[in-house]
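Weekly sync notes, structure subgroup
Attendees: PM, AL, DS (notes)

Item 1: joint prediction request from the bench team. They want all two components modeled as one assembly rather than separately. Inputs as received:
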Amino acid sequence: MSEITNDHLLSRLRAQFGEFIYNESTPYELATIVLHKDKITEVVQWLYNDPEFKFQFLTTLCGIHFPDATGAELGVVYHLHSLTNNQRLRIKCFMPVANPTIATLSSIFPSANWQERETYDFFGILFEGHPNLKRILNVDEMDYFPMRKEFPLEDGTRTDKEDQYFGR
Amino acid sequence: MSTDINIVQAPPGIEGPGFFATSIDKMVGLARANSLWPLPFATSCCGIEFMATMGSNYDLARFGSERISFSPRQADVLLVAGTIAKKMGPVLKQVYLQMAEPRWVIAIGACASSGGIFDTYSVLQGIDKIIPVDVYVPGCPPRPEQIIDGVMKVQELAKNESTGRRNSPEYKALLASYGIE
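Output from the run, pasted for the record:
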């Protein structure tokens, strides 16, 4: 049904922002680009306003952590949806863990507000310009970002899981 | 008339024409044990089992727990049924603090007892990390029969509790170990 193909979408993006797009692919027919993180608001605003594409719905936004990718350990993945064209686009932005900052999308999509708070809560990614960037799901006193891979998933206070019962 | 109705028997004592003598412990214990008002603190599937326990099939009211108290100030037994996230821990503790003595706590199910399958950073690994627990009911979730068994265990505790227990140094030390005055 979609009249706008992924190739057309990617070629127009390439023409507009080519030097900031590091990689593009279409796994499972889902158009995906890896974008320079400083360009995120500009690109998303352009996709939002474009009379042809009309990417006016933010499906989801989440964090991701690759500890071995030096200089690009943390990432944010955006899924945009054009309800008019029934077309999707995935945008990935990566940043170093030492300086995990990226611009907020909450001025374009109000629903990004809590999703960015959640991503901050679990990955420690700082969304610059966010109106209320504080923890949303975890306890306020938590002093780390639990979805980063260096932190153990299991709770340290567990007392009934002795190693001998699990063959360890 | 059915004959298999059980009525609570009077405690052992001295009976004569026009009088009955027993100790105050036993009288108070009898009254408390058969009018325990539960406060359900239900957060997940164990709470559904507790609803079945209160329903007409299992009917916890037969044991004197007809009146569910949703105010901690009038409740005698706190039934914690479900996973308690660490963020909810202070809320649970506050509910416990608002209950008047004597108070009992039942941890219903694996999550309330030990964290259950949720061995993770966000879940409290058993409510006994923050409040003292009298009876643990195992199961994931436990059947209503098991919950009734747990309530009957609390009835036994209430029946046999000595008058001064809540003022004893041991009990105060127990509360102090949880940081409760």
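Discussion: Chain A touches chain B through 14 residues (CB under 8 Å).
Action: AL to compare against the crosslinking data before next sync.
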